[in-house]
Specification:
The structure is a homodimer of 145-residue chains. With 145 residues, chain A is mainly alpha-helical. Helices cover 54% and strands 6% of the residues of chain A. In chain A, strand 1 (55-58) and strand 2 (64-67) form a beta hairpin. Chain A starts with a helix and ends with a helix. Chain A binds a DNA duplex (30 and 30 nucleotides) through residues 4-6, 25, 27-29, 38, 40-41, 43-44, 46-47, 50, 57-65.
Chain lengths: 145, 145
DNA sequence: AGAAATCCTAGCAATTTAGTGGGAATTATT
DNA sequence: AATAATTCCCACTAAATTGCTAGGATTTCT
């Protein structure tokens, strides 16, 4: 259970967009250059973020990407959910075909209960963390060094 | 980012042990039978839990496993950490060889910051959840059906 | 002695991850 | 109109991880 590069790269790319795309669109290659990420790979990640409505694009020369919304209205959770899949699917171990309101083998449900708790913890953490805050953080780090 | 079968099976096995191993050791095969888990696979998971000091074992015929501590003193986090690896390693994307107190490329640190927050959320959730509570839950489900 | 168990190590198929690669379509600039 | 910059789309691949399976060696109760 760990954050994959998808999530890490995605977060960094979105912060990068927040910093550099305010007045003009930013190309994949410039983000990839700054963030030292494979541009071909980043392309796919940004594609997902676009599909999810978090970034907008302008095609053609001098085109690129911009944040689709104010950074205050994008949470880390929004980004991670797109790239890491459902942050957590609360599923029983039983056959998913059967539609049982209350699991046959009750022990199975322990997992669900634990997972529910974990889920709440994660959601609370990432959904209250705005991109705006991350951008601020990133600027802060610069000043601090 | 999801809970793998390791974590799910492990939680169920530990609850099973909590319920059935109070007075006598319980064999892998009996747990696997009740929980409908591959016994060969479960063996490996329990092996890790033993190595981590969460369960104790008695070898030979009529042997088996028991909880090493009171269920009140074992958290879901303890179990998940053993089976899911470090629940989350807070790493930068930069070279891990270099020992930089403050990252060169500050943007990298955004990931660290987000991850720290997520980590706190998860830890808060799973470390406050005791095995005793899960066992109670599991009994509760039985009564409810 | 024999059976029931833990313990140890290795292998393996399926899935996921982290990319690479080849282009087609669109648009600004010259 | 030509060119270059860029998004967009789809397919392929190598490495790692997951979820097992397999074959024993060892220990201990009966």
């Amino acid at each position: 259970m760990k954050l994959s590069t998808k999530g890490r790269y995605g977060l960094r790319a979105m912060v990068d967009l927040g910093v550099y795309s305010e007045h003009e669109p930013v190309s994949i290659s410039s983000i990839a250059g700054r963030q030292q990420i494979s541009d071909r790979y980043l392309e796919q990640l940004i594609g997902k973020l676009k599909k999810a409505g978090l970034v907008s694009s302008i095609r053609g020369a001098q085109g690129g990407y911009q944040l689709a919304r104010d950074p205050k209205d994008i949470s880390a959770g929004d980004i991670l959910r797109v790239l890491e899949g459902d942050l957590m699917s609360v599923t029983c171990d039983g056959d998913s075909e059967k539609e049982i309101p209350c699991c046959e083998a009750s022990d199975y449900c322990v997992t669900r209960y634990v997972w529910q708790k974990v889920h709440e913890g994660i959601i609370a953490a990432v959904d209250n963390l705005t991109l705006a805050e991350l951008i601020e953080q990133s600027k802060g780090f610069h000043g601090g060094c």
